[in-house]
Design a protein that fits this description.
The chain has helices at about 1-15, 20-55. It has about 55 residues and is mostly helical. It has one domain (about 1-55). The protein is rod-shaped.
Length: about 55
């Protein structure tokens, strides 16, 4: 849902902000999302490894 809302909201934000600031904000959001997704993936992998360890 966030990705769908971004283009329309960015169009509204362009006049008060410079394009560079908008680009920086978008890059920051993308980086935060990537880090969050990696964290979730690492948690999931950790749980899988934890489940395997008693079997070994």
């Amino acid at each position: 849902m966030f990705a769908l809302l971004l283009p329309s909201s960015l169009a509204l934000l362009v006049p008060p902000f410079t394009r560079l600031e908008v680009a920086a904000a978008v890059l920051t959001l993308v980086m935060v999302l990537l880090v969050a997704l990696q964290g979730v993936d690492n948690l999931h992998k950790g749980q899988q490894q934890h489940r395997r360890s008693p079997l070994v």
